[in-house]
Amino acid sequence: MNDNEKKSGGWKMILGGIVLIAVLFVSVKLMFWGLGEMVRSNHPEVYQSASVLQEGSASGSQDEADAPSFCVHCGKGLPESFEWGQFCPYCGEKIEQ
Questions:
Q1: 25-34, 52-61, 75-84: lowest mean pLDDT where?
Q2: Helix/strand/coil (H, E, C) string of the chain?
Q3: Which residues 6+ apart lie within 8 Å of 76 measured at CB?
Q4: Model confidence over 10-44: pLDDT tens digits?
Q5: pLDDT for res 66
Q6: Spatial distance between the Cα atoms of 69 and 61, rounded to a whole number of angstroms
Q7: How far is the CA of 75 from the CAs of 18, 44, 47, 52, 53, in angstroms?
Q8: Mean pLDDT, rounded, of the chain
Q9: Please, are residues 80 and 88 in contact by the beta-carbon 8 Å criterion?
Q10: CA dihedral 70, 76, 81, 87 (to 10 degrees)
């Protein structure tokens, strides 16, 4: 009788393991999505600057495409005299076009 109970419980354990993995996967995805939303709400200037750059390039303005106004690595505003190929004064990363 013990052998019969162990065999019938095997498929329940497998199904439970699959459900557990699926639940853990979905919960991790939701946690990272929530963290991303919190970061976006805490730093709207970084994401807003990206949309401003996209709108400027879509309008066909050559001046905005030649000189970046925000660092692509840290998102901070750059001086007006900044040109492509220079290093960001805040994070030190080279900004290439």
A1: 52-61
A2: CHHHHHHHHHHHHHHHHHHHHHHHHHHHHHHHHHHHHHHHHHCHHHHHHHHHHHHHHHCCCHHHHHCCCECCCCCCECCCCCCCCCECCCCCCECCC
A3: 70, 88, 90, 91
A4: 889 999 999 999 999 999 999 999 998 888 877 76
A5: 67
A6: 14
A7: 42, 11, 8, 12, 12
A8: 76
A9: no
A10: -90
- CA distance readout (Å), 80 to 6, 67, 85: 74, 8, 14
Find tokens 């001046």 and name the residue. 63
Cα torsion 88, 90, 93, 97: sign: negative
* Cα gap 51→57, rounded to integer Å: 10
d(CA 34, CA 29): 9
